[in-house]
Design a protein that fits this description.
alpha/beta, Rossmann fold
């Protein structure tokens, strides 16, 4: 459907330095096809927007879309049933698009594998009956890592993947590294300079 969100960088309440940095980064990205080819990388950066709820993360995505005139694909990971389905969705996106995965820390269990291993060890000592719904998503951390930075991630060009999250400490470090989430942008409550 036609995307008509009113948020722009002109209307976004954001620290001026952060705003200028993001706009410049978007400008550079849109003009650097040859640069990405020279590096042998997919023409695709990843952004992580994080901070407390209500700090304009969704408005920031809309402003980036309006600034670059890109399509937006809002991907709800919990509704994707398998890694294969996730790959098919990626292949189905157009060039000059933004793929948005909001609240990635809440949608699936993509938490730190080391912490998860400790938790699993404790659960094995005190087993509980598993009552999970068989219709639950089977998308794995590996599937998301390949989605963002694997072989299929270079299908198409000029795409931006934007993740949002509220909690800083819940994701596996492999998902946070450059190449997957190249730019981490902290959005917090308004300050005097923001107003």
């Amino acid at each position: 459907m036609v995307f008509e969100h009113p948020a722009t960088f002109g209307t976004l309440a954001l620290d001026p330095e952060v705003k200028d940095d993001i706009m410049e980064d978007c400008r550079k990205f849109s003009q650097r096809e040859n640069y990405y080819k020279k590096l042998g990388r997919a023409w695709k950066p990843g952004y992580l927007l994080y901070g407390p709820p209500g700090t304009r993360k969704s408005s920031m995505i809309a402003a980036i879309s309006n600034f670059l005139e890109y399509d937006i694909y809002d991907l709800e990971l919990a509704e994707v049933k398998t890694n294969t389905e996730l790959r098919k969705l990626l292949i189905g996106t157009t060039n000059e698009s933004i793929i948005v995965i909001e609240d990635i820390d809440c949608s699936l269990d993509l938490s730190d594998r080391k912490k998860k291993a400790k938790k699993r060890s404790k659960e094995e000592q005190n087993p509980k009956k598993d009552e999970r719904d068989s219709d639950e998503s089977k998308v794995t951390l590996s599937g998301v890592l390949n989605f963002t930075d694997g072989l299929w991630s270079c299908c198409g060009s000029e795409k931006i993947i934007i993740f949002t999250r509220n909690h800083v400490d819940r994701l596996d470090p492999a998902l946070l590294r450059s190449g997957r989430m190249d730019k981490h942008i902290h959005l917090s409550f308004c300050t005097f300079s923001t107003f």
